[in-house]
Amino acid sequence: MRVIALGVTVAVVTGTVVTGAGPHAGDENAVRLNVDISTVARIHGASVIATLIAAVVLVVRLRASAQDQQYLQEGFTKWLTVAMLQAVIGYVQYFTGVPELLVLAHVAGASLLYVATTQLLLDTSRPAVSLVR
Q1: Is residue 72 in some structural domain?
Q2: Which of 32, 54, 66, 115 is deepest in the core (most CB within 10 A)?
Q3: How far apart, in whole angstroms, are the C-alpha atoms of residue 123 and residue 18?
Q4: Which residue segment(s) compose the domain that 16 sits in?
């Protein structure tokens, strides 16, 4: 789970750099980051793909253990839904010329994904507590 959290962190940081270098980094007079946006966008995309691959590996491993699968299914399903929607928005915005509304949706999605990742990490980092004695 920590690998997925690390991957999401890398994706959010590199995505922030892409946004800071791109046309929607503030008002028209805002100074943009002086980086090659194509290179940073590729690094961002690669980090997203690597994170999704790690998630698929986790799903395969969870299927091997019924107890783990039941414990994580709901939280991981929510995370995967947000992650996949975020990836789709990112690719659509990239291949449609980075329209402003899709950039806004992608930035909002990044926030939701980070919250979902944090929740998933917290859920899997503490032991289950039984309230029944």
Answers
A1: yes
A2: 54
A3: 31
A4: 2-25+37-125
pLDDT tens for each residue of 1-32 = 889 999 999 999 999 999 999 888 877 888 88
Measured distance CA(21)–CA(5) in Å, rounded: 24
CA distance 104 to 96: 14
76 part of a folded domain: yes
Could you give the CA distance from residue 81 to residue 35 in angstroms, rounded to a whole number?
A: 31
Question: Number of structural domains, the chain?
Answer: 1
Answer for the pair 92, 119: CB distance below 8 angstroms, yes or no.
no
Q: Which of 120, 91, 96, 93 is nearest to 8 (CA)?
A: 120
Over residues 66-125, the pLDDT tens digits come to: 666 666 777 888 899 999 999 999 999 999 999 999 999 999 999 999 999 999 888 877
pTM summary value = 0.84
Rounded CA separation 8/87 (Å): 11
> Would you say residue 15 lies in a domain?
yes
* Cα separation, 82 vs 68, whole angstroms: 21
Which residue, among 81, 113, 131, 90, has the nearest Cα to 7 in the 3D structure? Answer: 113
